[in-house]
Amino acid sequence: MTLLMDAAGLQAFLVRDFGQVAEDFTVEQADLAGVTLRLRVAARHLRPGGTVSGPAMFGLADVAMYLAILSRIGPVALAVTTNCAMDFMRKPRAGVDLLAQARVLKLGRSLAVGDVLLFSEGLAEPVARAGLTYAIPPQSTPAH
Amino acid sequence: MTLLMDAAGLQAFLVRDFGQVAEDFTVEQADLAGVTLRLRVAARHLRPGGTVSGPAMFGLADVAMYLAILSRIGPVALAVTTNCAMDFMRKPRAGVDLLAQARVLKLGRSLAVGDVLLFSEGLAEPVARAGLTYAIPPQSTPAH
Amino acid sequence: MTLLMDAAGLQAFLVRDFGQVAEDFTVEQADLAGVTLRLRVAARHLRPGGTVSGPAMFGLADVAMYLAILSRIGPVALAVTTNCAMDFMRKPRAGVDLLAQARVLKLGRSLAVGDVLLFSEGLAEPVARAGLTYAIPPQSTPAH
Amino acid sequence: MTLLMDAAGLQAFLVRDFGQVAEDFTVEQADLAGVTLRLRVAARHLRPGGTVSGPAMFGLADVAMYLAILSRIGPVALAVTTNCAMDFMRKPRAGVDLLAQARVLKLGRSLAVGDVLLFSEGLAEPVARAGLTYAIPPQSTPAH
Questions:
Q1: For B9, which DSSP code?
Q2: Which domain CATH number covers B23?
Q3: Is the minimum CB–CB distance between A22 and chain B shorter than 8 Å?
Q4: Nearest-CA distance from C129 to chain D in Å?
Q5: How far apart are CA B60 and CA B63, in angstroms?
Q6: Does C84 touch chain B (CB under 8 A)?
Q7: Can you list the positions of beta strands (E) in A7-110?
Q8: What's the gap in Å between the CA of A96 and the closest CA on chain C?
Q9: Best exposed site among B36, C117, D60, D76 by fewest CB in 10 Å?
Q10: Residue C2 has pLDDT above 80, yes or no
């Protein structure tokens, strides 16, 4: 198992292929254990009450796992999310970023599976967890 | 089983308690069979490529189920999503709205469970499905 | 969309390829809307307390969806379950069979997705629901 | 966070409250990191083809998480599984036991959430993963 894209490579991929969404995310770390991705929480990620919204948490988990897969197979895949099972366990802390830790559990020819833990920065207990599956097409070109 | 809030009541609830998010959604129908909710697709819901993004689909499913529960228990709950399992089956059609059909399968004292089908308007086959669980606190006041 | 195997064909498939497990199940109905499968509840399906166990409910949902897929593609697939998200909503009623209603929501080249509702016979409210995904290999031969 | 039941205590609980099912399982380890549970694979756990069946894997994950929760709250709960999302990633190896590693991610007043990895003994890559939720009743007495 080798790493085909590091944190800088993944960040560059985000900027190039994810356009304006890229500014939401910072790749904190990428190694064989997985990818850590930061959601730079802004007003548009909040729901009434001031905590990070469900869709923003879903998006963070999804992008984190997507990057974890790309770190293994390179920026050649048109992988698409086919399944996401998510548990929302605690209300995110207001006023701090969210961090996602994604790990790849299976990287098959046609399916990749992994899971993600989401943390409010500075807190030890996860706010959410997700299991995600991606379909990897036989031949593929860049993009999400 | 009675309906405590109809489509107009749910729409008014959205406007009052969900602020700017409310303009994304139109409650098309609400009866004992469930709630149909429209996502008025705009540029902010799209991902690179022009189809509706995963977070926007998640948000639509989540709000549709939330409203389906409120239609049964009234605007008194601070229900929170605890689990969502979602299958993404087809790419949403570009240029049309998404419609969610949510039904409540269980309405217990502390947990509500339901499922949602998402359709691109005008197409017969669903683009996604979701099963969702909400925790209903013992005593509750309005809001999400 | 046509039906390649009817209830009798599916039952014969079970007997031939699922051996002793087949006696647990009766295919009640199979049409384009889906498959209804009966779990003939016996002592081995019960947990302490006398209601149907979680593994038995999981098995019923899994076989029901598997048969619903086969009814569409014929007994030629070595489809394998890749994901199951299940909500357990009510305790099954003691002393009655369980019925599963499975429907196929997507039948793609490599993935099939569907959902299942489980009922205690004679009761209107479902005891559980499941969403399942199956991988369908490119070329395939009979068996599970 | 303290441990109220250790491996020996959990095993005794299984024997007392799970009757004949208890002989399927051996509690290998129980500490603050979680519980490792062995499924002593026998003919009744196999499906046609000789690998461990889906229901047997589901049962292993479910019991492992149940014991991980009990190790924290003691044998006083009538906790019930409300949700399980499971990814089946690899075919279990024939002829060896399955090991489940369960960890508790949230232990709330009314809900407990955790996840489980399943391994074929001797292999490094997991065969399956599961996320599970349990409802914990306000006042409770022993049993599953």
A1: H
A2: 3.10.129.10
A3: no
A4: 10
A5: 5
A6: no
A7: 25-31, 34-39, 80-88, 98-107
A8: 31
A9: D76
A10: yes
Asked if C105 is an interface residue toward chain B (Cβ–Cβ < 8 A), one would say yes
CA–CA distance, B102 with B30 (Å, rounded to integer): 10
How many CB atoms lie under 10 A from the CB of residue C73?
16
pLDDT at position C50, please? 83
Alpha-carbon gap: C91 to the closest alpha carbon of chain D (Å): 9
Q: Interface pTM (ipTM) of the complex? A: 0.92
In this structure, is residue C24 part of a structural domain? Answer: yes
Number of domains in chain A: 1
- 10-residue mean pLDDT profile of chain D (144 residues): values are 92 88 94 96 87 96 96 83 97 95 95 97 97 83 40
Closest CA to D102 of D52, D37, D54: D37
Whole-model pTM: value is 0.93
Residues of C with Cβ-Cβ distance to B85 under 8 angstroms: 85, 131
Nearest to C89 among B83, B113, B125 (CB): B113
Residue B142, in any domain of the structure: no
Pick the closest to residue A53 from C39, D30, D139, B20 (CA basis). B20
A59-100 confidence digits (pLDDT tens): 999 999 999 999 999 987 678 999 999 999 999 999 999 999
Cβ contacts from A onto D, under 8 A? 45
Structural domain including A84 reads: 7-135
Min CA distance, D108 vs chain C (Å)? 19
Q: Do D83 and C88 touch (CB under 8 A)?
A: yes
B143 part of a folded domain: no
